[in-house]
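SAMPLE LOG
Freezer: B-3
Tube label: C17
Construct: single chain, 76 aa
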Amino acid sequence: MITPMQIKLARTALGLGVRELATIAEIAPSTIHRFETDKGSMHSRTLDRVQQVLEERGVIFISADENAGPGIRTRK
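STRUCTURE (predicted):
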């Protein structure tokens, strides 16, 4: 499962504002804002949709391992 910080990092790396991402993912901006600030959760379907939108635009989500926490990369 991707983390709030990963969504914020991915969104920022793509130059998307909260409202832009919300429009593309067809969800409320407040949902993204609450999730990114750890003040709420997202339904799994909503989180899957946000992840799909970000991945379609070139983000690769990296899971945490024994050496580092979760992160993102962008495709070339």
